[in-house]
Amino acid sequence: MKLDREFDTICAIATPLGQGGIGIVRISGPESLPILRLIFRPARKDCPFSSHRLYYGTIFNPETGKDVDEALCVYMKAPKTYTREDVVEIQCHSGPAVISHILSIVMSQGARLAEPGEFTKRAFLNGRISLDQAEAILDIIEAQGSGLAELGMAGLKGGLHEILASIKEELTYCLSAIEVAIDYPEEDAEILQEEEISKRLKEKVILPIKTLIESYEKTKIQRFGVNVILIGRPNAGKSSLLNALCLEERAIVTDIPGTTRDVVERQIEINGIPVTLMDTAGIRRAPDVIEAIGIKKIHEVAKKAKIFVWLIDISEGIVLEDQAVIDFLREYPNTKIIVAFNKIDKVKDANGLAKELISYLRENAPILSKVPFCLISAKRQKGLNKLTELIFEILTRDSGIETVKCAPNLRQKQVLERCISYLSSAFENINQKMSPDIVAIDLRKGLDLLGEITGETATEDILDKIFSNFCLGK
Ligand SMILES: Nc1nc2c(ncn2[C@@H]2O[C@H](COP(=O)(O)OP(=O)(O)OP(=O)(O)O)[C@@H](O)[C@H]2O)c(=O)[nH]1
Ligand SMILES: [Mg+2]
Fold it and tell me: What backbone torsions phi and psi does residue 148 show, to the nearest 5 degrees?
C-alpha cells in the first residue's frame, strides 16, 4: 500500500504553536539524521548520535552560519520509533518565530512539510499500529475529558483491536464452513452444520458487534460532552456558581439583579465527562430590554442542553416571579432539571426549608413532580460535590457507561452498522436454508467491512479522510 511519496523525509512542528518552554520539531524518514548533522552543532565533540539519546547543542542556519537556538536533539533509529522510520526530534524554545525558523531550516535541507496526521499514517502504513489504534491516538489528542482519553488509551493498547480480531476469527470460521458447502454441494448435509453456524454467527459475531455499537452510544457523552445550563431569577447566584465550579472568576458577580445578560460558557469535567456550563441572564417576568435579549439567548442554547440547574435563593424562597422560570422550563419537557437551593449560609434550618420548598414545587408544577434537589452555597463553595454527583447521576442513569472499557468512534460505529445489516441478512438466509453462495456473499462483505476498521481493507480515500482529521505534526 506504500506510495513513493511516503518514503521521503517529512517534518513538522509537533507542539502547539505559541509561546512556551519547549517546542518540538519532528522529522521522519531516511534523511532525518543527515539533516540533523547539517544544522546541529553538538556541545560534545565527536558526537556519536547514538539512537534514543539526547544531545545538547546549538541549531544553526547552515546557509548563513548564524546560531538560531540552543536545543536538545534526539535521533531514533528505525524501527523502534513512532513511524518505524528514522526519526529526529529537536527540542528547542517554543517561540513562534524561533520554532518556525528551525522548521524552515529543516525544510531547506530537504525535508517536506508533513500533512496532518502523516506521522501517524506512516506508523500505520509501516505496520506498527492498526487503523483503529491510529484513531485511538486521535481520541487521546482530542479528549476534552479524561473519560475519552481513557477510552483512547484502551484503544491504543489494542482493546478494540482484540475484540474485532476475535469477531473476525469467528466470522472467518463461519465463512469457510459455508464455502466448503459451496465447493462440495453434494455433501452439504454433513459438512454444513447450519445450526451450529447460525448459532456461532449470532453469538460470537452479531451480538458482540451489537455490544460495540451500544458502547458507542453509551460513551457518546464522554466523546462529545454535554451542556448544563444554570438558570434562575436575577441574583440567585448563577454566576457565583459558575465561578465556583470552574475555579476561576469567569463571570461578573454583583449584588445588582440583572448583572449577567449574555450566555457565559465554561468547560469543566465531571467524572471524565466534559461539561459545558452556561451561566445565563436571570429570568423574570418583566425584564428590561437588555435582559429580554439575554433571555432570548437562553432559548437559543436551551435546545441543546441536557440539564437545567435551577438556582433558588433559599433565603428568599419561592416567589411569584419564579413562575417565569417554571414557564421557561415547561418549554423544554425533555431536558432534565435539578433544583439547587443556594445561599444556605444565609438561613438557619436550610434542610427543613428546602424540604418545604421542594414539596411545594413538586405538588404545584407537574414538570417538577420528581425533580431532584441539593443544597449549596456558591459563595462559600458548599455542597458543590453533591450537585456534580447529581449531574453525573442524571447523565449516566441507566446508561451502563461504567461497564464500557473500549468503544468505537462514530466512523467505526457506522461501519459496524453496515456490517450488521449484511450479517443479519446472512443469518436469516442460513436459517431459511438459502443457497450457501448467497450467504457467503453477505459474510464476505461483513468481513471486508471489519477490515475497514482495522485497516486491511481500508481504501486510500478512507485513509485520507481519517488522517486529515489529525493535527499537523501528529
Ligand atoms: N451569602 C451568599 N451570597 C451569595 C451566594 N451566592 C451568591 N451570592 C451573592 O448573591 C449576589 C448575586 O450573585 P450572582 O452570582 O451575581 O447572581 P446571578 O444569579 O448571576 O445574578 P444575575 O446575573 O443578576 O442574574 C452576589 O452579591 C453574590 O455574592 C451564597 O451562596 N451565599
Ligand atoms: Mg449572573
Answer: -70, -35
Beta strands in 301-446 (DSSP E): 307-313, 336-342, 373-375
The protein residue with its alpha carbon nearest to ligand 1, atom 8, reads 237
pLDDT tens by residue, 236-265? 999 999 999 999 898 999 999 889 989 999
* Cα(297) to centroid(ligand 2), Å: 14
Longest CA–CA separation in the chain, Å: 89
From 233, 235, 288, 348, the mutation candidate for ligand 1 (largest count of ligand atoms within 8 A of CB) is: 235
Cα atoms found within 13 Å of the Cα of residue 122, Cβ hemisphere only: 28
d(CA 17, CA 349) in angstroms, rounded, equals 54
Nearest-angstrom CA–CA distance, 294 and 261: 5
Distances (CA, A) of 354 to 233, 238, 245, 283: 17, 18, 22, 21
> 429 CB under 6 A from ligand 1?
no
- The response to whether residue 280 sits with its C-beta less than 6 Å from ligand 1 reads no
Specify the 3-state DSSP secondary structure of 304: coil
Ligand index nearest the alpha carbon of residue 290: 1
Residue partners of 470: CB distance under 8 A and separation at least 6: 116, 117, 120, 137, 138, 141
C-alpha cell at 29: 524518514
Count Cβ atoms within 10 A of the Cβ of residue 371 and give its class: 0-12 exposed, 13-18 middle, 19 or more buried.
middle
pTM for this entry: 0.83
User: How far, in Å, CA of 426 to CA of 420, rounded?
Assistant: 10
Residue at grid coordinates 448583572: 259
Q: Is the CB of 144 under 6 A from ligand 1?
A: no
Query: How many Cβ atoms are within 10 Å of 50's Cβ, its own excluded?
Result: 10
pLDDT in tens, 7-57: 899 999 999 988 999 999 999 999 999 999 999 999 998 999 999 999 999
Nearest-Å Rg of the Cα atoms of the chain is 30
Strands 273-279 and 226-232: parallel
List of domains in the chain: 4-129 (3.30.1360.120), 136-219+406-454 (1.20.120.430), 222-401 (3.40.50.300)
Compute, in angstroms, the gap from residue 136 CA to the centroid of ligand 2.
40
- Atom 13 of ligand 1 has which residue's CA nearest to it? 237
Type of residue found at 208: P
